[in-house]
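LAB NOTEBOOK - FOLDING QUEUE
OPERATOR: T.R.
BATCH SIZE: 2
PURPOSE: Compare the predicted structure-token outputs for two unrelated chains run back to back under identical settings.
PRIORITY: normal
REVIEWER: second-year student, initials M.K.

ITEM 1
FIELD SEQUENCE / FIELD STRUCTURE:
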Amino acid sequence: MSSGFDWDTAVPTHTRTTLTDEQWNQFNSDGYFVVENLVDPTTLAEVTAETDIFCEEADSFLEKLPDSRMFIAEKGAITFAPNIALKSDALLKFVSSSPMTGLVHDLIGPDARLYHDQAVYKANEKPRRFPWHQDNGYTFVLPEHYLTIWIALNDVPIEAGCVWAAPGLHKSGTLLHTYVEPLGWEIFEDPPVTPIAAPIAAGGAVVFSSLTPHLTGPNVSDHMRKAYILQYVGPDAIRFNGPHDKLGTPLTDDARFPWVLRNGSRV
């Protein structure tokens, strides 16, 4: 949990190059905003072809496990393929492309690294929600505010399991999470504010802070829901692996956490 967190000091104050005033104001007040058509159709097809390969490999691995599941991944329910940009030239190019780095510049700063990426495919065979959580609730990072870009690889209406956000709660910092089997870490079952759905078409994205409570609903559509999720941190980020880790690990390994921006320029 946070101690003495102040949202106003967590977000950058440099000149913005990409965000509109409306987007910035919504990000500041609600903790998220939606960008339509962030990724062009040709690039989207290339990215999806790559993420399909990695998710098929992840599903094949799950098939060999007891009950076809590991942690919160389960075949027929939800598949995770993490850290795949480091295995694919096409994805590594994509995560540092100008549509992404423009958002990163304005919301993180002129120096930023790729922290984490994963393809998350939600099947409709075993519909289930992903619980209310903050990204910083899974592995605590300082500074607590980093950036998530949740990209729809195909159309994600409400019935396919779109993102829902609990607006305004990001300003309270990292909240206490409790593990709920088999769903994952959860802050609350029902938020203390009115949640807002963020359905998006293929190529659109939901952009939010690591402190924004959010979930994705069950996929009750007739197709697989496909998303590619990118996360970026600033140059001074430190990750803490559990409550007993008092020193943390600086995220400075260039091979594991590659630069995407240096001094405002794409890397």
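ITEM 2
FIELD SEQUENCE / FIELD STRUCTURE:
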Amino acid sequence: MNNFDDIRPYYDEEIPAAMQRIVDSNFFGLLCTYVYPGHNPADVRQMMLSFKTIRDFQLEVMRCVNEQVIRRSTTEFTYDGVEQLDPQKKYLFVSNHRDIMLDACLLQYILYKNGHETTEITFGANLMSSPLVIDIGKCNKMFRVERGGTMRDFYLSSRHLSDYIRYVLTQKGQSLWIAQRNGRTKDGCDQTDQGIIKMFCMSCPDDKIRALSELHIIPVSVSYEWESCDVLKALELYESRFSRYVKKPGEDLNSILTGIAQPKGRVHFSFCPQVTEQDLLPFDGLTTGDYHRAVAHLLDSRINAAYRLRPNNYIAHDLRYGQQHYADRYTTEERDHFLQHMQKLQEFDIAEPDVLRDIFLSIYSNPVETQQKATQQN
């Protein structure tokens, strides 16, 4: 058995059997309606049964999924910095995490459109809730990331993941995408978990500079004009103030579908400068823990500085603090539209509606403050 058979994506030879399972799923008709509107499901079925490789699936299915998401739920889709990437080089893309599926999927679309190979994608074990999701994910170069368990389980799974990431980049010859932290950013503050940096280094413990420099890390800043699942995130933060939040059955799937369908307005991806050996050498004398923190802070500074602020962010900041400091950054119509969107909060029977309102506003206003800090530090 391959050392990574427990977490890896499918091989090409596993694609035909996976296609058979997908087209036989009870949800196949619904998937056809979204991805291929107006097409005969029987024709789509025959097309998918003809697929022999992961590339077939990504170009003929996932490309169409991304195009439908962009067409149906965005008003503008832009990106910058992709020109710095070398098509012959493999990268570890580390991005902020705002949407369960779309952060990684839309990045793949950008790479494809600009002549680059798509990446392998981390896929939380908690999201592998059904055989259909597993098949679609593993056909889309997604690999399993274990979460939870005992401290020993966590250490072993982290080391296994670290080994796999280095193997994929240096031997398999594929790029990868991973979020800067476990789970999505809920409060609008994009912050790299230093544990992620520690995990990267576990597979090269004797040289902390080489451990990261040979991964060719590209920080990626993803910004949505309308925050993905904003109301759901506000409710979760409200409920988790005094006790650990326990997800309800089907909640992750609901977040995936909401993120796909919810209007997102203008969406922008920024490919930040690569983290090079020259960037890391000033941290060489630090203790291991301080080194991990310093690198995490470096990623944060680039991601937050590149975040594309929109009128919603400035409106929320002014509303939250009862001021008009940023009034020149938005129009009256944009403010009214934001206030109308906030009306959705009133649909919920909440004991402290003002607290929920403040939490909601913080999701949009916090990026203003984090970008100010990042810009000052840079």
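REVIEWER COMMENT (ITEM 2): The CA atoms of residues 48 and 60 lie 8 Å apart.
FOLLOW-UP: none requested
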